[in-house]
Amino acid sequence: MDRIIKINTELSNFLWGYPMIVVLLFGGIYLIIKSDFWVFKNFSYIFKNTFGRLFKDSKSDKNSISPFQAVSTALAGTIGAGNIVGVATAIEFGGAGAIFWMWIAALICMTTKMVEVSMAVATRENDYDGKLIGGPMYYISKGAGSKFLAKLFSFFAFIAIIGTGALVQSNSISESVNSITGLPLYITGIIILVFMFLVIVGGIKRIGAFAAKIVPFMSIFYILGCILILILQIDKLLPAFKEIFISAFTKSSAIGGFTGGGILVSIRWGLARGIFSNEAGLGTAPMAHATSHTDHPIRQGMWGAVEVFVSSMIICTMTALVIITSGLWKNPELQGAALTAHSFSKVLPLGKYIVAVALILFAFTTAVSWCYYGQRCVKYLTGSSKLSEIFKYAYIGFCYLGSIGGLKFAWGVADTANALMVIPNVIALIIMSNTYRKILKDFDKYKDGSLRGDYKWTYDNKWRKYFEN
Predict the structure, then answer these.
(1) Where are the alpha helices (DSSP H) in 123-262?
(2) d(C-alpha 224, C-alpha 145), whole Å
(3) Where does the sequence pass through the membrane (predicted)?
(4) Which of 366, 285, 348, 315 is nearest to 71 (CA)?
(5) H or E element: which one contains 126?
């Protein structure tokens, strides 16, 4: 077993190193060019027509969820430990300059995720019960013309969902609760089991409704905690930004073996953690967006771009500033979650509880969202709706197992599977880039809002022609 763990760790470290950065970074740049820099040219329009229309576009029906519920579900799966622990790791190994490169990754990945979400909506279809379904497996098969890559994506996604979604997230919750209250892991596991059942038994409609309520709360709770700490040491904020920009282009004195490592190491950690935190290119979030009650793929795709901005540019940046202003990031004895918790507690005595509560909320919402992603993978791999329904009960069982056991191996396998999901997904996005351009052009006549598309449009009754011509 030790040999297997070592091999998997080496493979995971390799995949999430420079190879994955190259795939996602250059894939993203290619999509930016092919889309004629649409996200950057329409930056204000995107936010005006997402958050600006939050309560105007809140419709849903029995077969879909509202655009905000869709983005909340996707954000529930996106905002997780990476926004707290991942940022600390980036600073630990890449220095403060890694945050600058995290911002660069986010700006590039906004387009990648917009393309993902748009293609998921354009290739969605109606399930046996009339509900809208879609995701990478559908656009890889229909848009890129490869059922093999679609199955490959679904297989790796299934493994990652069990590991990252069920085992790892529930373990994070039980460990956090134990650190605060001393409650035994198995008791927390039972509580997780009950709450998971109550949410996911209702399917995507209940998951969407739950996410729409909890995601804004948990995000605001964490952001306000960060803002309070930064206000209490406002004099250190400007030097922190100065440290970020200077360190991005010079050698740093961070811990974790980075000292003297140079700019490339800072770039590697900033880009890798940035990409990991916003899930762009991973392909999970489009499964939630495909169920949205939206009239056009691009309109929902804009929410994908916003997700990246919220996750990386706001939440990750807040975490980074708290850590850098604390000065504790140069302490070799503090790593990962401990570095973040101590950075909060240095200024605010109850700061560690903010981190712990945020981790619990982030982890639970991630676990809930990824259960739905798992159902979609099972349905695509087996063609059985019954097995898809059975899976969610098995998923709850995996959550309990995760809450009571050490999961170093599960985390490593999930990391590897996550990386292997990216490859077929990004290949498909590049293949479909011309189709995406056509759908962008089609959106021009709906852009000013005077004309609306049809909420019932799917691949078969509207978008097929854009993929075939």
Answers:
(1) 136-142, 147-160, 169-181, 185-200, 203-232, 237-247
(2) 46
(3) 12-33, 84-109, 148-168, 180-202, 214-232, 244-267, 308-329, 353-373, 393-411, 417-436
(4) 285
(5) strand 125-126
Residue 380: give its domain's CATH number: 1.20.1740
In a domain, 304, yes or no: yes
- 11-46 pLDDT tens trace: 877 887 778 878 888 999 999 999 999 999 999 999
What is the Cα–Cα distance from 281 to 364, expressed in whole angstroms?
A: 22
Look-up: residue for tokens 């919220």? 310
3-state secondary structure (DSSP) of residue 462? helix
Number of domains present in the structure of the chain: 1
> How confident is the model at residue 409, as a pLDDT?
64
On whether residue 317 sits in a domain, the answer given is yes
Is 2 a domain residue?
A: no
Q: What pLDDT, on a 0 to 100 scale, did the predictor assign at position 259?
A: 45
The predicted-structure confidence for 299-347, as pLDDT tens digits, reads as follows 999 999 999 999 999 999 999 999 999 988 888 777 777 788 889 989 8
Instruction: Count the helix, strand and coil residues of the chain and give each as a percent rounded to the nearest 5.
Output: 75, 0, 20
Least confident of 21-25, 420-424, 455-459: 455-459
CA 74 to chain centroid, in Å, comes to 7
Q: Which among 20, 123, 179 is positioned nearest to 462, based on CA atoms?
A: 123
- H/E stretch holding 78 reads helix 67-78
The residue type found at 112 is T
Say what the pLDDT of residue 44 is.
Answer: 93
Question: Does the residue 201 lie in any domain?
Answer: yes
| One-letter identity of residue 268 | R
Residues sharing a CB contact under 8 Å with residue 110, sequence separation 6 or more, in sequence order = 39, 280, 304, 305, 308, 309
Pairing of strands 125-126, 132-133: antiparallel
Counting Cα atoms < 13 Å in the Cβ hemisphere of 58 gives 8
**Rounded to whole angstroms, how far apart are CA atoms 364 and 67?**
21
Q: CA distances (Å), 71 to each of 114, 188, 303, 401, in order?
A: 12, 28, 6, 29
Range of the domain at 85: 54-442
How would DSSP label each residue in 107-119? HHHHHHHHHHHHH
Of 211, 417, 426, which Cα lies nearest the Cα of 303? 211
Q: Please give the model's pTM, rounded to 2 decimal places.
A: 0.88
Residue 463's pLDDT is 84
Q: Return d(Cα 232, Cα 322) in angstroms, integer.
A: 11
Give the CA-trace dihedral at 46, 51, 54, 56, to 10 degrees: -50
Pick from 80, 100, 108, 92: nearest CA to 21 = 108
Buried b (16+ CB within 10 A) or exposed e, 417-429: bbbbbbbbbbbbb
The residue-averaged pLDDT of 396-400 equals: 90
DSSP run (H or E) holding 65: none
Q: d(Cα 48, Cα 42) in Å, to the nearest integer? A: 10
